[in-house]
């Protein structure tokens, strides 16, 4: 099995990063986390990556006059670690079309909503405001348009009457931590790939499950 060399890009606490590092520590996982790169020197995730023995790099966007300069510095780090694939995990910088196109089909993101609903920020608050009874998270390939790329995997959670932004976020993040390793595995072992702007799957899956919200229980 060839393990693809993956970089995780973070800006903050890095809990999704930890779930990917843990998954990749299993011998049968088809990816190794070769680099964690943060655009913020104070990102809490950096210490967590170091504690796990992963190489880290800081490319501070504030130290670069333009987005292109910033991204050139990131590309240099990625090249020096021979990175084949990028996972964005709470990486809060908008990337230029040039960077996104260089990594087309080789860069994925996790987003805390059931895309294409609630692109952008404050996804949990907006779901509560709309009164939806299911919400969730999505892993998708990154394309130039924000949060609009082809969908690789989604997880759904119920929304309950007493939910706050925090309680809903807490329910979604548990699923993010399961979904992201699952999606990365599918991409790195060749089960899912990007073709003509769509995600193609090499095998079918069990279509018998469903989530009813509210449940009758
Ligand atoms: C996660 O909920 C992730 O889905 C979200 O930021 C959080 C990062 O948490 N990403 C976005 O909103 C991207 N548009 P983490 O640093 O603990 O993984």
Secondary structure layout:
Blueprint: E1 4-10, H1 15-24, E2 31-38, H2 44-51, E3 56-58, H3 67-80, E4 85-88, H4 97-102, E5 107-111, H5 123-130, E6 134-141, E7 151-158, H6 165-188, E8 192-195, E9 198-201
Parallel strand pairs: 1-2, 1-4, 2-3, 4-5
Antiparallel strand pairs: 5-6, 6-7, 8-9
Helix pairs in contact: 1-6
Bound molecules: glycinamide ribonucleotide.
Glycinamide ribonucleotide is lined by residues 10, 12-17, 45, 89-90, 110-112, 173, 176.
Based on the model shown, name its key terms.
alpha/beta; 217 residues; Rossmann fold; 24% strand; binds glycinamide ribonucleotide
Briefly, what is this?
The chain has 217 residues and is of the alpha/beta class. The protein has helices at 15-24, 44-51, 67-80, 97-102, 123-130, 165-188, and strands at residues 4-10, 31-38, 56-58, 85-88, 107-111, 134-141, 151-158, 192-195, 198-201. Helix 2 links the parallel strand 2 and strand 3 (56-58).
């Amino acid at each position: 099995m060839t393990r693809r060399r993956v970089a995780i890009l973070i800006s903050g606490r890095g809990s999704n990063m930890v779930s990917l590092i843990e998954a990749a520590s299993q011998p049968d996982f088809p990816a190794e986390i070769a680099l964690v790169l943060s655009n913020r020197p104070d990102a809490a995730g950096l210490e967590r990556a170091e504690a796990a023995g992963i190489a880290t790099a800081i490319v501070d966007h504030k130290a670069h006059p333009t987005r292109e300069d910033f991204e050139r510095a990131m590309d240099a780090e990625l090249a020096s670690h021979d990175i084949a694939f990028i996972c964005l995990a709470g990486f809060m910088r908008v990337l230029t079309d040039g960077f996104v196109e260089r990594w087309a089909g080789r860069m994925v993101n996790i987003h805390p909503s059931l895309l294409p609903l609630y692109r952008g920020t404050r996804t949990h608050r907006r779901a509560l405001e709309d009164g939806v009874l299911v919400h969730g998270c999505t892993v998708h390939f990154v394309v130039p348009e924000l949060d609009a790329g082809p969908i690789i995997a989604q997880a759904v959670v119920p929304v309950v009457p007493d939910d706050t932004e925090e309680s809903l976020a807490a329910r979604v993040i548990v699923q993010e931590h399961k979904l992201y390793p699952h999606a990365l595995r599918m991409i790195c072992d060749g089960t899912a790939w990007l073709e003509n702007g769509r995600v193609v799957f090499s095998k079918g899956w069990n279509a018998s499950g469903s989530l009813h919200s509210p449940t009758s229980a």
